[in-house]
Amino acid sequence: MRRTLPPLGALRAFEAAARHMSFQAAATELGVTPTAVSHQVRALEIACGRPLFRRRPRPLTLTEAGERLFPVLQAGFDGFAAAVSALREADDRRPLRVTTTNAFAHRWLVPRLYAWREARPDIPLEVIGTDAALDLHAGEADLTIRYARAAPPGLVAREILRDVFWPMASPALLARGTPIRRPADLLQHPLIHMGWGEGMPDAPTWRRWLAEARRIDPGISEVGNAGELHFREELHAIEAVVAGQGIAVCSDVLAARELQNGDIVRAFGLALPGFGFYLAHLPDHPRRSVIDVFTEWVRTTTTSVGDQQA
Question: Which InterPro entries does the record cross-reference, listed alphabetically (predicted)?
Fold first, then answer.
């Protein structure tokens, strides 16, 4: 039965012309010329085997066949529009799914969500904290905040933050030892290591920091003198620093709150470059307008006075 349907464009042109009783008004609504509407209607009349409009004398009126066809098409297009609108409204109410690393979600994003809820209570968020890179093309998330040296390829990406790694310690820990005047003085305290995985020679590790420090303090050892602690998760390493268990090379973005509060301090003025935090999404994402709102909120948040440290 559906094989006999005329082209959709011809049906739309006829429905609009019949609703307005004007080819000109139909053309304006559809964004085409009146001639194009006339040609589409003529094609539909040929497909139906009878005229649908009386074109003379003016004004334009429907024939008996047109009067039979018009209400059916009008109801159909109204139903299509209502169904699409309902789907769009349901999609607008669906939480915006944001994926990022566990560390960034815990240390930066989640503590600021109260500000998002105050600014946009109409747009709920679903935060997916995972160190795995979810597939945006497969619909596993709407947008991602990825931690990388460069912007992820194939996505619309914007760098929102870039961190720096400093040796950090609690003031109480530093007070228990001799003053820190040279890099080697750090080794009187336990060194806290965090897992970076293999294949990252430029990761901001203690090994790399000590290699840099050797340029200004050639006699510094390659290992700590007071023991070492190892953590797989950066979150746990920062917590150990706050607890006074040792010194770690930490991100100034992830440890920003403790730096601001004075719970930890920079133990020495030699830093390692970190990575960028990139907010990225598919270029043709259907919820682009909502994503743009969230992107602007993140941009504003990262440049506000309270986030200068971050």
Answer: LysR-type_TF_proteobact-type (IPR058163), LysR_HTH_N (IPR000847), LysR_subst-bd (IPR005119), WH-like_DNA-bd_sf (IPR036388), WH_DNA-bd_sf (IPR036390)
99-154+278-307 belongs to CATH 3.40.190: yes
Query: What are 12-34's pLDDT values in tens digits?
Result: 999 999 999 999 999 999 999 99
* pLDDT, position 94: 83
For residues 281 and 144, the answer to whether their CB atoms sit within 8 Å is yes
| Topology agreement, domain 99-154+278-307 and domain 162-275 | yes
Fold of 162-275: D-Maltodextrin-Binding Protein; domain 2 (3.40.190)
Q: Where do the structural domains in the chain lie, given as residue ranges?
A: 2-93, 99-154+278-307, 162-275
Can you spell out the DSSP letters for the chain? -GGGPPPHHHHHHHHHHHHHT-HHHHHHHHTS-HHHHHHHHHHHHHHHTS--EE-SSSSPEE-HHHHHHHHHHHHHHHHHHHHHHHHHHHHHHSPEEEEE-HHHIIIIIGGGHHHHHHH-TTS-EEEEE-SS---TTTTS-SEEEEEESSPPTTSEEEEEEEEEEEEEE-HHHHHTS----SGGGGGGSPEEEE---SS-TTS--HHHHHHHHTTT-TT--SS-SS-EEEESSHHHHHHHHHTTS-EEEEETTTTHHHHHHTSSEESSS--EEEEEEEEEE-TT-TTHHHHHHHHHHHHHHHTSGGGS--
Q: What's this model's pTM, rounded to 2 decimal places?
A: 0.70
